[in-house]
Amino acid sequence: MEERNPTSAHKWPRRMNRVKGVVQQNREGYVLDRSLECFPQDEVNHVFNVALMCLESEPSRRPTMAEILKMLEQIKPDQIV
Hints:
Blueprint: H1 6-9, H2 12-24, H3 41-54, H4 65-75
């Protein structure tokens, strides 16, 4: 996990915009590890949407960790997250 420090803080808006762009253009599969031979596209899309909620600029609009866990569990409820 990357530490937030003065030298990496300027990259934050670019990273947020990249994630937003990926989700808006439905290109989630293009940013995954290329060594993955197959993956459930709908589940990947849901995870990216959760990530997008976590990137809200207003902290009060971001989900809590409990809410995130619940959302991730609902993506694939028959498997442990």
